[in-house]
Design a protein that fits this description.
single chain, alpha/beta, 7-stranded mixed β-sheet, two-stranded antiparallel sheet, 2 helices, 9 strands, 17% helix, 34% strand, binds zinc ion
Amino acid sequence: MLRIKRVALEFMLNLARNMYPREFIGLLRENEKKEISEVLLLPRSTYGRGFSSIDHYMVPYTVKYVGSVHSHPTPNARPSAGDLLSFSKTGGVHIIVAYPFTENNIGVYSNNGEKLEYEVVE
Ligand SMILES: [Zn+2]
């Protein structure tokens, strides 16, 4: 099962709260234990109401990442059609953090939009 470090999850929730009502987007990195442990925010990412996108030219070639995270200013944590398109370009694990940005308001998806089981680890 997919494992997400609690500190990384809390970081995402805090970012989402701070950006609200705009969305934030970042890339997910994992540690040597294959736990999602870090969020990489990218310069020139577009943060907007109802949309957010990554400028792919700003991702350095040397950066390894396993997926993406972004927030939704609504309680709907399901991926939009646009989300599914960008999921397919940015790795295999995608987290959506939905309003009001607690651990109960997140969805984790594969790159084709299927819900993934996950656990939060210390
Ligand atoms: Zn979205």
